[in-house]
Amino acid sequence: MAIALVDGIFVGTIYGLFAVGIVLVHNGSRVINFAQAELGTLAIYLTWTFTDGRETPRLAAAILAILIVGALGLVFERAVVNPLREAPRITVAVATVGFSLFLIAIELLFWGPSPRSMQSPFEGGVNVLGYIASPLDWISVGALVLLSFGLGAFLKRTDFGLGVLASAQDPTAARLVGVRFADVSAFTWVLAGVLGAVAALLVQARNPAFGVGFMTDRFFVPALAAALVGGLSSLRGAFVGGIVVGVIDLTSQQLFATSGIPGIQVLTMFVLILVVLLIRPQGLLGTREAT
Amino acid sequence: MTGRPRRLASVTALLVLVPVLVTRLDVVGEAWWLAIGFAATYAAMALSLNLLMGYAGQISLGHGGLLAAGAYTAGLLASRASLPFAVALIGAGLCAGLVAFVVGLPALRLRGLYLAITTIGFVVAMEQSILQMPAISGGSAGIALPRPSIGSIGFAANGDWVAVLFVFLVVLWVLDQNVLASRFGRAFHGIREDEEVAASFGVDVRSFKLLAFVLSGVAAGIAGALHGHLVGFVGNETFGLQFSLSLLAWVIIGGLGSRAGVVTAAALFGFFPEILDRVFKIEFLSNFQFVIGAALLVATVVLNPNGFAGALRHRREELEMDKAKGRLGEADEDEVPALPEFPRTAGAIEAFAPGDVVLEVSGVTVQFGGLVAVSGASLRVPAGQIVGLIGPNGAGKTTLFNAIGGYVRPRGGQVQLLGRDISELPSHDRALLGLGRTFQRGGLANNLSMIENLGLAQHVQSDYSILEALARTPNVRRQERLVDEHSRQVVQALGLEPLAELPVKHLSGGQRRIVEMACALVTSPPLLMLDEPSAGMAPAAVESLADALRDLRDTHGQTVLLIEHHVPLVMDVCDLVYVMDRGVVIAEGDPDEIMVNEHVLDAYLGATEAARVAVPT
């Protein structure tokens, strides 16, 4: 059980990173980015391509992949999200579904349907209550803490950051006081790409095999659950939500291991999402807004 | 047989004979028929999703879960229970319908993005957990769905099975048509456009939403099972998340809400990859179709969210609009015609005795969080009178209206309509009892035509069941003919015939107000509640509005409760006026009393004392 708990916390940091991306885009564009996880899969494929049979250092390849995926987020924002800023939000959400399908199609086209694998660049790790935490685990903890708190502070302390937060509350008012929606939106989408890439590269090291649509299939629903548990608008909420969901995920697998129900953690996530949306839509940390 | 049935029969015969005969001739390879089979089953799936998303406006990113429910049920019933194909297929439809009912339950509280999230969770749970349970499928191996045989007739040849698929597709198409042309179709459209407006016409939004899920689920279950029999197998990933998203893409590209559009798009996306892959063996190109599909989806959303069919429709509407404008002339827009009287709804009270009270509101309080929007408001609306409700912005007039109509839940107080306590009833039941209303923001389904809006407004007057509607029984036809006749009479009385078939969003603000009032009146409700009817009207039109309201009262004995900002209009037509300020009813009386009431002057002009002091003499 202790192992599951620690493992859950580490997996939770990955969910948290995705959730931060989902929350940022939701703040900036008031939309759920259904391509959030798939941006990560592309980063894995890119890193694999840059390193496979070449001398490129893994870190350089990873950074290059992260930058490319971040740029892709920017391109999507400029080409689709920004032109649709007056459109109903569900329209934009469908566009992100299209983005996700597009990424999957690109993966299929260039790398084919068979799964691939890439070894972790690190070996060994530190024993935490029986769980061997690899350096990547620590990186993901560090990245999540840095991003959710550092970014949170940046958003609260700078004018631009306040603009990002304000546009989530009231886009018209934010525009009236001089915050450029376009800048805010672009910023959040670049970060969404970067976060998706970072999270995916970190998680890929945990399970070497990956395939087309891999991150969406495996990580999108828990990431959504994490964002929802966190209240969908706060970065710190996403951090806590990620950890909570990670722990629920791993402990439910442990608890129901003997039940013989396959994919029990997916069922748990589905139920968790329903419970949060129907009973506590403001999330664990949020306060109910007056309507 | 004449007309439509005859055409239908010949099309069906052709769709059956061609594949069966061509297969006998053996000129087209089996792979071709398989690809055509894909086109047919994908088209059926698109019809199912279109009913839910295109008609009822409920987004589903997890429709594959319903397809899978149907396919697995059909397979299990056939293999384990050894049931005949037809029974297993019915089982597939029922099971998927039941699952859809459960999936639809969150939609009663969630909309849009949140509904999208729950449906995506549903399909992932199906794909990665439920469908892999040993009790269902023996692990992740999936289920075999051999082609059925009826007596000595087998369907092993793909062409023969395609003939069966075509028959099902025609049946689904006709059923879809029948539902759309019934009160159910109009109610679905109403829910898609605006749930409150639909409720104001008496549509039970919650039940109809669930009904849309169930109908869509049954169709999905059958389509999924038919597809399973086509390829002979269904696995947990066959109708997983990626398939669900692709299906969504096809119906959006084809044009949500357009039967022909979604069927064409889905059929093309079913046919071409198969042909490229199996006949021409060009794997690269068949993979490329995903890129094309995804890019087309994004392009559709950015350039024309209504899809290909929507773009065509829009072009046609613009042309018709120009023509209609030409026929109407310019002057008509500024005039409110006398609103005609319509036959009273069965059960509604025919005539009132003098002194009867139609609406009695006592001590209604509405609170939003910490804000008290309406505080202990009481008013009574006597029969055959026009009662005005005025007050500054934010006084709580519309909130009080919403409390009377059942759109917000008051913390306290009572609302009585015709002596009956309706405080606990949902808004659609209040509409049923005879509470007609218009909305300040506009209470029409904007993408529907005037005829369709008037049909929706007569929702409570038809009473046939969904099964009757699917079969389009003579009873349905008769009732529909009545609804249509009424609608056309109204349009004629309003003098707006040239615009009858165009979406009302193309109408001028004033015209929309008139149509909205006509919709609220079409069932002759004992009480008509108008929320700022003069908003958006030209000044000249406001005068004729006053005439129309007076005519309604004097000629037809219509009782009206009226919120207006245009104070001269209120003073002109009202028999009794209530004034609200900051959530409280501060005055009541006839217009002359109200004009000189000190509290009212206070509310409108600020503190009178302060005003006197501030004005230098």
What does this structure look like?
The complex is a heterodimer of chains A (291) and B (617). Chain A has 291 residues and is mainly alpha-helical. Chain A has a single domain (2-279), classed as Orthogonal Bundle (ABC transporter involved in vitamin B12 uptake, BtuC). Chain A has eleven helices and four strands. In chain A, the strands form two sheets. In chain A, strands 1-4 form a two-stranded antiparallel sheet. The termini of chain A are far apart. The model of chain A has no long low-confidence stretch (mean pLDDT 86). With 617 residues, chain B is α/β, with parallel strands linked by helices. Chain B has two domains: 11-245 and 271-286, no CATH class; 357-614, Rossmann fold. Chain B contains 25 helices and 14 strands. Chain B has a six-stranded mixed β-sheet, sandwiched between helices. A four-stranded antiparallel β-sheet of chain B has the order 6-5-8-9, with helices on one face. In chain B, strand 13 and strand 14 (584-589) form a beta hairpin. In chain B, helix 3 (63-79) packs across helix 10, helix 11 (241-254) crosses helix 13 and helix 17 packs across helix 19 (474-494). The longest helix of chain B is centred in the middle third of the chain and has 27 residues, at 205-231. Chain B starts with a helix and ends with a helix. Chains A and B meet through helix 4, helix 9 and helix 11 of A and helix 5, helix 11 and helix 13 of B.
